[in-house]
Amino acid sequence: MPPRPEGQRRLRLEITVFFAYCLIFQQWFLKQSMLRRVGFVVGLYLAITIPLYVAFHSNACAVMANGRIIAVAADENIARKVMGDLVKFKTSEAGRPVDVLEKIKYKGIRINQQDVLDQEALREELASALTFKAKGAAILVNGEQKVFLKDIQDAEALLAWLKTVYPVEPGDQLGFKETVEVVETPVDLENTLDLATAQRQVLLGTNKIVEYKVKDGDNLWDIARAVKIDLDQIIFTNPGMDPENLEIDQVLYLSKEAPLITVTATRETTVDEKIPCPVDVRYDDKLLLGEKEVITEGVPGEKTVTYRISRENGFETGREILSQIVKREPTTEVVVKGTITMVASRGGSVRLAWPCDGDIVSPFGMRWGRMHEGIDLDASYGSDVVAVAGGTVVSAGWDGGYGKQVQISHGGGLVTRYAHLSSIEVSVGESVDRGDVIGLVGSTGNSTGPHLHFETIVGGVPRDPTNYLP
Ligand SMILES: [Zn+2]
């Protein structure tokens, strides 16, 4: 027979000792008087029940939201009263019935009295921990609830307002690019916006609205650079603003987000247009590339065209020809064009024209640690800027720090740029001749005063324009 394990032997010993104590206790108990025996039993009972009573009897009321304690009141009546008052207050504040979203329960608990909240603290605690919901309306964009308002009327007013934000042309059919719906739904009071705030949220794409108040000496380009937001985006989110005439104290809304809803406008329009003359080109190696001589003047034709023009948030996005009627065919123009390229002519006798009258006030080269990629010509505001040679307009519009600018390609890899213009007189694709007015001197973009910034770009690399000027 194997020896018994140590544990079993120990247990047997402990049981034996326990029974021995019981026997000693019984001997002692039976020797006592009846009074002492009763006293002992009562004493033992109290010693067990009092701590149990204290441990399990509640002295406060916990307010539970979705099974979690959010506050402790002195008792359930007080908790219910404070909750009722709070809902009543929220209801009068919202002007319509308000409910608490969470499931509320009251439960007796035992707690240190100093942890019980007084009525005011209880109300604050409940107000911040709970979500109050009321009947309201949501605007759904592509099926997603994006904006919450107090009612359908506000939601519909917002959508109607949105259609008036961007310029509307006669005959425009207005709509939204996204699927936009309005639904009646319980809304969280905290996320419910008043109409004006909701309008800005839709326009700026966010409810984190940053306002900027224009200061004396500000220009839009500097503001855009300082807040690191695209200049076009600022123009986009502030419809009706004139980028060149900011007023002091004017408020700009800044956002990096796109508008939540895109307003589409479609219209059909019928216009009379000229049909450009077909050009019969002959080449002459004694003329500068881009220059031309007309041998036979052509007569443009005439046509009536019906377009369907689409715009999104005011910007044209499509122009579809629905029909066109030719009223008169054009006649052919015969021209002679030069073939000498500017690069080949460097140092030779062929030179560019001056783009405007004025002295060079800032030369080509390093300036303030940065490369100045052109020359600045001192010229008065509004004076003519002309094409320095014949060519085709390849860019005409706002371009960052250049402000309003025009680029002309003269062939042979030569492009000239005219920047900070106050107005542009040509459009992309247009042919220009040497000496044609292409714009007026101004101070748009990163400019401290009226001047013309002029660049000659050869094969994509800016070169010193004075090499090509007379
Ligand atoms: Zn410059």
TrEMBL record:
Cite a single GO MF annotation.
Answer: metalloendopeptidase activity
SUPFAM superfamilies, alphabetized: Duplicated hybrid motif, LysM domain
Q: What is this protein called?
A: Murein DD-endopeptidase MepM
Gene for this protein?
mepM_1
* Residues in G5 domain copies: 261-341
Pinpoint the LysM domain residues.
210-254
Decide whether keyword Glycosyltransferase is in the record: no
Q: Which residues cross the membrane?
A: 37-56
> Could you tell me which species this protein originates from?
Pelotomaculum propionicicum
Question: Would the keyword Hydrolase be found if you checked this record's keyword annotation?
Answer: yes
Cite a single Pfam family from the UniProt record.
Peptidase_M23
Q: Which domain of life is it from?
A: Bacteria
Keywords for this entry?
Answer: Hydrolase, Membrane, Signal, Transmembrane, Transmembrane helix
Tell me which Gene3D superfamilies the record gives.
Glucose Permease (Domain IIA), LysM domain, Resuscitation-promoting factor rpfb
Family annotation (SMART domains): G5, LysM
Question: EC number(s) of the enzyme?
Answer: 3.4.24.-
